[in-house]
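Q: Could you write out the predicted structure for this multi-component system? I'm mainly interested in how the pieces pack against one another.
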Amino acid sequence: MARNTAVAADAHAPPVTAALARFVATHGSRGWSDAVDHEAQRTFFNWLGSAIGAARHESVNAALGAVQMLQPAPQASVLGRSERVDMASAALINGIASHTFDFDDTHLKTIIHPAGPVASAVLALAEHQHLSGRAVLDALVLGVDVACRVGNAVYPDHYDRGWHITGSTGMLGAAAGCARLLQLNEPQTTMALGIAASQPVGLREQFGTMTKPFHPGAAARAGLTAALLAKHGFTASARALEAPRGLMQTYSVKCDWREITDQLGERFEISFNTYKPFACGIVVHPSIDACIQLRAQGVKPDDIERIELKVHALVLELTGKKEPVDGLSAKFSVYHGCAAGLIFGRAGEGEYADAVVNRPDMAALRRKVVATVDDAIAEESADVTAVLRDGQRVHVFVEHAIGSLQRPMSDADLQAKFTHLVQPVLGQARIGPLVNACARIDAIADIASLVALARD
Amino acid sequence: MARNTAVAADAHAPPVTAALARFVATHGSRGWSDAVDHEAQRTFFNWLGSAIGAARHESVNAALGAVQMLQPAPQASVLGRSERVDMASAALINGIASHTFDFDDTHLKTIIHPAGPVASAVLALAEHQHLSGRAVLDALVLGVDVACRVGNAVYPDHYDRGWHITGSTGMLGAAAGCARLLQLNEPQTTMALGIAASQPVGLREQFGTMTKPFHPGAAARAGLTAALLAKHGFTASARALEAPRGLMQTYSVKCDWREITDQLGERFEISFNTYKPFACGIVVHPSIDACIQLRAQGVKPDDIERIELKVHALVLELTGKKEPVDGLSAKFSVYHGCAAGLIFGRAGEGEYADAVVNRPDMAALRRKVVATVDDAIAEESADVTAVLRDGQRVHVFVEHAIGSLQRPMSDADLQAKFTHLVQPVLGQARIGPLVNACARIDAIADIASLVALARD
């Protein structure tokens, strides 16, 4: 007996690698509704702000230090900084930066943060090759579709077993976007996806370390490199995604092939992208939102005896750190998120500064939060009751947090968030021109002109 | 219920990431027997010949074309060629080249080809930094130990489910070797292994395409990059290998932690490395060996009615291509291997040339091979009977093929193989000086002087 018959393999999976390649190589430019295109602009804008905002973070400094040991050619920009590096390294570093604050976008159905791997790869390549803003948006829509459709097919099993799905599907999206920019034909695009399939990046164990944001960065680099290899005739399996020993059956028991092909070219996953109002993992957002509402209802930290928080099991599994010691670990603490909401009425990157995390009043309030798992509560909801010293109970139930599909961030919200992120790095004077360039990205002949506004 | 309780997780796994890091960072130089050190030399020598031999293969041309789009700095050499590229790209390309002919080394217990990822990363870094031959051998022994011990812990489940284990453990070996060369301390080495853990490379579905040799190359690049990142303060989980959502529990059901820590620093996995006499997957070797023996016994192709081949199931699973169309696909055809053994009495890279694969006599003889799975036959054995037109039956049973641990290649065998590979690329005059440099590698003050002999 062959040993591997122990693993149930589906030898008759449909040719989804080739189907995605055909879609990426042949779908018309802007071949979708205005609403989809507007969402692509919002995705790009939110990602750009997130990357610039973290440009001077120590994780970016460390990554840039390592990359500089390779003496990279100045092909593409590190966003928010003055350095220029080769395209692949720019994809890596901008991908790291964009996810460093955990403040980027989320495809809620899969918890993929799709712009990190896709936009980082696409922009680096497009800047170097002086491609248009239209080409960038097209590549972004198509790349996000590829990553999220594969994610839809394997989620949740794939994620549950330990993969950080953003990086373990993102390299496919990055490869797709770059293949599109390079105008690879259908067979070449199949190879690009195939080469990328061998390079999933990311483990959930890394959450709370710099290697978490490394995942979208490394996925961006892997996808960009895969497209360059395919352009030069490098070969891979044309069934690299679906074959019995291909990526999807290797790293997931669940493989719902229809998620990849159903309404391909008609329904676009970027339509379901959302943007974070809070600088932390999406599962914490309903709890923060509820605490901000408690604050708006007059609940003051000093009056609080305890906070009774009922959440879905995943919230405590992912963000159950009771005593975070710094900003990075606080991202994985629903307790910290609640305290920030109650004390500040917000949870931007500033509320995740080390100094704020270590404030005695924050530590004290975090300890007053009693979190329990309630099977009746969905992942996107939270039930919070403030029990005050005088015995009074103030209750808030959030079904869908601000930033969700049901309560999306408005364009004005996104612009305020962008300003909050970019102003400390590039200064106020740069905000206006950069916001304007992003708003008219569709008409930009050379995307390098936009990137020039996003450099220090 | 948390969804991921469906996956059995061992929260009490021992701290093997830290144990490996301590070993790599603190084990003494040449802290092993002469026999181990000699095996390291043999491993390096065999790898170098394999990489030089494939230097002009189209897979290397394609990879170099892609890398040159990044305008790499001339830091390190592409073996067997004149180009120089940055260290990470050299690791990638030399790793691809060394595995292109499927003619490299094999750690038989795991089917890992350890030198591809480890030596490719180590040599690129050491050349650029002008480190000694001694430092290279030390890094090779330690890096191979890390990759193969993790492999021992997860094999066979990990491999069975579809991972190409050379690239999915090799990035750890490459990170370990590079961490050693960079003289990272114990915590930094833990981080290097942690960063590498998020980047397994390789799917068995890619066998027969250029992406198979891409796996050790990309693993080399990933490991080298991980060490550079760790040197600059980049962080990862210190339990990235063993945590419930760490690499090993995420990608393998079998996790035998003792394989990592038992006799660490006393038993060295490089002792169990073997070198291929035939330019194809190791599982085909007993069959080829048997056919060469049939030929030596006077069996002539024209007299053959059929060849009855009994093998382990894995042989047909991995190399069951009946009608290979070119050299690359012939690597995965036990039928082709048998025909080469019977017609040529050898199966070097020359016997896998496209023109040879498509020779009518080869095609005819391949079709005469009737292969069946026999549960009684081990992976390392083959039972072959030539049934001749006159009814005569000639039987050969190979328990262990030439090149196995039981029947190792001699130093002279390795030198003949090296010459066979290197002569067509660098010419006869270069063989002697290069062989001599490899023989005295332990005494070389600057490994770049050896690499200079291996360039075109």
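A: Regarding packing and overall arrangement: Chain A has 21 helices and eight strands.
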